[in-house]
Amino acid sequence: MEIQTGTRLLWNRPAPLFMSAMCIMRFRRSSISLSPSVNLHPLFNPSRHRISALPDGPNRIPNQIFAAAGSAGKSKKLGLGERSKRVMELEGKVLVQTSARVPLVLARGKGCKVYDAEGQEYLDMGAGIAANLLGHGDPDFLKAIQQATESIHVSNVYYTSPQVKLQELLRGCSFADRAFFFNSGTEANEAAIEFARKFHIFSWPYVKLPAMEFIAFNDSFHGRTMGSLVLTGKENYRSPFEPDMPGVTFIEYGNIDMAKNAIQPGKTAAVFVEPVRGEGGIYSAKKEFLQALRSACDDAGALLIFNEVPSGMGRLGYLWAYEAYGVFPDIMTIAESLAGGLPIGAVLTTEWVAAAIGVGDHGSTFAGCGCPLVCHAALAVLDKIQKPEFLASVSKKGQYLKELLVHKLGGNPHVKEVRGLGLLVEIELDVSASALVDACRNSGLLILTSGKGNVVMLTPSLVISEQELVQATDILLEGMPALDGNTSN
Ligand SMILES: Cc1ncc(COP(=O)(O)O)c(C=O)c1O
């Protein structure tokens, strides 16, 4: 159990009904155990579903699952059409080749379904890498965007109402007093780096060299622009651009002693941490770890920065991951899910930190202006997902998804672990997942990989139905034989 549910809310909103903690379901050949959290809603206490070392194994999964699950139907095989091939060929000639794409040209979407250039339908369990929170074509989302056609872009020289309204809404549902908007997560992290340094310069005007260094964690991910990259603990992302910029110390994620030693007064400007890590494998911090970071930062006068790019905006069944821990950051960065798939990033922070940032300290053509189009979209998304009943539905569906995966894939020897919280779920395999990704795509299911390519990551739109979760797990089950004979890891 990783996340505690001792939620401390700054505003008066009931905690989600089905708050469940990060449940890790470990698979060994003959035993499947599911580590429950504390304080679970009785209806969704996974201990009811424990199937560890029982001879009748999966039969212990509750009836509700069988009722909805049905039997894995043989899905039709899809293929690449001429129209798609033409787009792919042209792409190969005209774009800088940085993306390892799968052979699929997407043309449109509806709900959680997407359609290729030939009109073939796919159930999308990636949702634009966790961005399309409301799926495609949500009527409120579309209405909000249409409203924005009155004014698509206004520079940051002028005031606009949607930007102010969005900050007002964020303020009402988070720890933050103020926000600054960008176009992406990596830009938000860049700004957080600058804000942290500026905070120390501002706070210690007579100190020649105030705290300027950062603590980050092994295997962390903060984005692909230079500053964010420098804080990214994955060497394969940094090494093409070496030498690294100085001033960052990487320590083991979760290691309290190392963190306490590393965070030093007068030296550490900020600690950058993902409360729940997405890229490279979903792992959640322990509550004691984040608490230790908080108190070490307080003692050293350093800022605590939470990167909630993948974990914020309701994906975990909490509006923000920090709620699950009751540990509050000084700065939080979020990104594209805020506007349901339109480009946005945001730094949320306290009055205390914001006081250090002056006019002219940051900006770009789009950053800071809070483009009305994107802000209208974000207002529609946030308005919908912050409702307790919506968050409760995310928890419930996430739990259901994990139970379906246990039931259907738990007996497969390639499956090492199913883990996740809310609708951020992954399946760790003992081999590369690429053959499974291909098999699923050919059967009309889109899934993503993470980690070292051996992890299937499921981040569907938060509006996905239980029936679609059943469909997804049926196709996954059907695709599992593709992994047999694959020994690459
Ligand atoms: C934890 C984390 N930080 C930062 C980013 C970068 O966000 P963006 O791709 O919007 O630049 C990502 C993107 O996946 C992420 O997962």
What would you note in describing this structure?
The two termini are 27 Å apart. The protein is α/β, with parallel strands linked by helices and 489 residues long. The protein has helices at residues 63-69, 82-94, 127-130, 139-147, 161-172, 185-203, 226-230, 235-238, 256-262, 287-300, 321-325, 351-354, 372-385, 388-409, 434-442, 466-479, and strands spanning 24-28, 31-35, 106-110, 113-116, 121-124, 178-182, 213-217, 248-251, 268-273, 276-277, 283-284, 303-307, 331-334, 345-349, 415-421, 424-429, 445-446, 448-450, 455-458. Strands 6-14-13-12-9-7-8 form a 7-stranded mixed β-sheet, sandwiched between helices. It has a 6-stranded antiparallel β-sheet with strand order 2-1-15-16-19-18, covered by helices on one side. A 4-stranded mixed β-sheet has the order 3-4-5-17. It is globular, with a radius of gyration of 23 Å. Helices cover 33% and strands 17% of the residues. The chain contains 16 helices and 19 strands. Bound molecules: pyridoxal-5'-phosphate. The site of pyridoxal-5'-phosphate has 17 residues, from helix 6.
